[in-house]
Amino acid sequence: MDDFERELGGDLLASVSRSFYLSLKMLPREIRGAASLGYLLARATDTVADTDAVVAGERLRVLSGMAAAVAGDGAVPDFTQLLAIQSAGSCKNGELVILRRFACCLEWMGKMPAWQVEAIRRVVASVIRGQRDDLQRFSVENPTALCSAGELEQYTHDVAGCVGVFWTDLGYGAYGKRFARLPRREMEELGKNYGKGLQLLNILRDLPEDLLSGRCYIPGADPEGGGRLIWEGNAARWKERCRELLSSAGKYIDAVNSRRLRLATALPGLIGAKTLNRLDSAGWKELQARVKLERPEIKRLLTKGLLASVRRKSLGKQLYELLATGT
Hints:
Strand order of the largest sheet: 1-2
Order of helices and strands: HHHHHHHHEHHHEHHHHH
Largest sheet: 2 strands, parallel
Number of helices: 16
């Protein structure tokens, strides 16, 4: 393990990721560094995009600079204003450190193989594209909703479906055809749906918080009509769509050959399915209080997945059962 992976891919990564860090930590060495760095860079851009105290125009400027820097076409942007505002606010310390260490992240990327660098650049460019569209579309002063299901599908692809493709790129890049028992193109499509499902889950769970920021990802809803009405009148369709997308994960998971990599791939889906079931029974008050799994629940899912993996049982089936039974 080199110094960059030890410093950036260890404690810093753990400080900004509650559950996905568990998956990253389980990854084989051949792809762990690139997957961790991709996450850190996306988390850095997310921190910039979500700093509401900075005007949208400035955040767009910084995001463009970050995109250029990751692509190798520009210098690291100036984060001084963002760091000052975040230090005075409620931003997690780890998120501040990511911005301060952004140049080190790029230096770490420069030490990686060319195929990993290209995969990281593709996924970060896609994430930033979705974040920039968000900033241009939404504002606290003019609350609005997405106009169509197509816009929602595009957004979830840009910020998370691309992560499923990224994961697949790393797998095939490291192991070739040994990565999975399905053709690469099919794995990319399944991975894309997996990521979109996890992002749609986040959208449903974060509805109250997003509405306060003038954002409503539920197509055609009235963001000024009251969150309870949106949740009770519009969410059922998208919870079902989320369940449909997450079901793609089962086939993806079981196609992965390595047991270790298969468990790392399965954990986000297992946590997501359990969280979606919790959302199914949540009322507006529960949603406002934030629906999430506690650490002991996540550990139980991890333990159950580990046992299934050791016994060569299907983790995809475990996910299907969670989605089907709602428990």
